[in-house]
Amino acid sequence: MISSDHLDPGAIGRVKVTVATINSNGPLSKHISIYSNDRITPVLTVEVTLNVVLSDVVLKDVAPKDMASKGVATK
Predict the structure, then answer these.
(1) How far apart are CA 67 and CA 70, in angstroms?
(2) Which residue has the higher pLDDT, 55 or 26?
(3) How far apart are CA 8 and CA 47, in angstroms?
(4) What is the value of pTM for the model shown?
């Protein structure tokens, strides 16, 4: 999703990105391609890096046998 469907030359806009982290834990990197009618740079690739941290709140809602079947270590 972008903040506008038209930007004047030199204007600034925002791009909203959602990253699915359901099966991730630890460092994660994704590349996003932004297409435009710019003659010099018609495609701009942006790298988004993040660190996914497994939350204790999520673990409390999952039975230990379910966690083991998903590859999560249990005590």
Answers:
(1) 5
(2) 26
(3) 24
(4) 0.56
